[in-house]
Amino acid sequence: MNHAVEVIDQTAGRFPRKPAAELVAAVLAAERVGGSIVVAFVEESTIKDLNARYREAAESTDVLSFRHADEDADWPEPGFEEEAELVGAEEPELGEIVVCPSVVRGYADEEGRAPSWQLGWTLIHGTLHLIGYDHEQDEGQMRAREQALLDELASLMPTGLFPDEAEGSSEG
Asked: How confident is the model at residue 137 (pLDDT cuts 50, 70, 90)?
């Protein structure tokens, strides 16, 4: 089973793409799902616009997941393949995860967690949505699976990605 992950960074932060791609691919492997995913890091204005357009919520959010399995979805195509780093091989498209690092950072501060750890959780969360989990509809299965993956993939959790974050900082 192959897993392909493209990571696009449209932020001024210039996040390293490889750790994000490896974590998302590891989630797919752990879930025994083959396919390709695009991860896009965007600025807060972009995610706020997407959240308003696709979820009718006029506020910023940390992550949005757009599933290809949702056939009637009218969701954005990234169109930035020349900037993407590909990990894996050609597979069926599962969808796109759009992440706003500045909102992730705010949530990390609120929760007292390392921002990079929070980013890792966000990527796991978004990936699970793409493969069919839905915490708004289930009875806790998605949250339980997130926790299991956090434990299982702890060695792949990104560290030191935010400018003022010490390299190697963890959950906090």
From this structure: confident
